[in-house]
Amino acid sequence: MPVKVGFVGTGGIANRHLNEANSNPDVEMVGYCDVQIQRAQAAADKYGGNAYDNFLDLYDTETPDAIIICTPPFAHGDIEQEACERGIHFFVEKPVAVDMATANRVAKAVRESGVITQVGYMFRFSPPLIRVRELMQAHTPAMIQAHYYMPGLPSPPWWPKMQLGGGQLIEQATHMLDLARFLAGDVATVAGATTTVRNWTDVPAGYEPDGLLEYSEVFEIPDTTALILQFESGAMGTLSCSIVPQAKWDVGFKVVCDGLIVTIEGANASYAGELEEQLRAPDDWATYVQRDFIDAVIAGRPAGIPYDEGVESLAVSIAGYESVNRGGAPVKLADLVQ
User: Fold this and answer.
1) What is the 3-state secondary structure (H, E, C) of 148-190?
2) Among 163, 153, 156, CA closest to 201
3) Domain residue limits, the chain
4) Sign (positive or negative) of CA dihedral 198, 199, 200, 204
5) Closest listed residue to residue 169, CA positions, set 220, 216, 225, 228
6) What is the value of pTM for the model shown?
7) Is domain 123-282+314-335 classified as CATH 3.30.70.260?
8) Would you write out the chain's pLDDT as a tens digit for each of its 338 residues?
9) What angle do CA 197, 202, 207 make, to 5 degrees?
């Protein structure tokens, strides 16, 4: 029998997950929930099933086997905890929360319920990056260097509000931090610094946004951030990220090991060591993370990126901000994760 799947949050990234679920013969799409009911109704009209504006109504009426959660960061917590209490397996897009209290609360509920969970860190399923991880097992990692430069501010109204989205470090650069953990192991400490270098709220007369924003009437987040990571292995890492408007997206990742250097671009990688090789991901690589979740639910096995992994990666971002609050002093990850 196909897995009965509901969706909570049907805007933005949810469109990709809706299309992927629709193409999976093992999925029956039964319901869609969004606080903007018209978006949920549009999904119901397109894929079949019913629309809701309250996730409890979706749970009560459709009794799904699993849900796919694509809400903004601030909306996480009760959706997942209620799923645990009802034995509903869940896939959740990153980040899992905007604060550790929420993430730890849900993690406890997951452990107590035994539901199958998956966090949408899709890069972990890229075959080239899996190959890089295998190569690194034979080479001592020394430096993991990542940057995430966006040419402006995303347009959702919650994005420039720290308590709602957590800024770039939590909402976007978390992909790079999770990939660093996937390749080099857990992070022991984080030291961070942030700044805001431009006046985002000085909106010029006649300014008409188009795509990423150059100005915002509300702006509560840093526009530039730098982290220094100390991994439990002894390796070091750095992350620099910025949303200061410039010409184009620029996202990069380097790994230096004893006898190996790796360059990662998106889901692709190249390396030089005893051999040199360029590795390209299949066109459909981004679908693997949802497919693994559905397969895990069918088989009754753990999924590849359980909720605890999402909590650990969130903690790296939170530790960066906490370090800023402490004047740049390193913060231990063990003090944040319960």
Assistant:
1) EECCCECCCCCCCCHHHHCHHHHHCCHHHHHHHHHHHCCEEEE
2) 153
3) 3-122+287-305, 123-282+314-335
4) negative
5) 225
6) 0.96
7) no
8) 899 999 999 998 999 999 999 999 999 999 999 999 999 999 999 999 999 999 999 999 999 999 999 999 999 999 999 999 999 999 999 999 999 999 999 999 999 999 999 999 999 999 999 999 999 999 999 999 999 999 999 999 999 999 999 999 999 999 999 999 999 999 999 999 999 999 999 999 999 888 999 999 999 999 999 999 999 999 999 999 999 999 999 999 999 999 999 999 999 999 999 999 999 999 999 999 999 999 999 999 999 999 999 999 999 999 999 999 999 999 999 999 99
9) 115
Alpha-carbon distances of 165 from 43, 55, 101, rounded to whole Å: 25, 21, 15
The b/e string for 187-203 (b: 16+ C-beta within 10 A; e otherwise) is bbbbbbebeeeeebeee
Measured in Å, how far apart are the chain's first and last C-alpha atoms? 37
Q: Which DSSP string corresponds to 50-90?
A: EEESSHHHHHHHH--SEEEE---GGG-SHHHHHHHHHT-EE
Fold designation for 3-122+287-305: Rossmann fold (3.40.50)
Token representation of residue 326: 């402490």
Residue type, 143: M
Q: State the Cα–Cα distance between residues 275 and 329, nearest whole angstrom.
A: 40
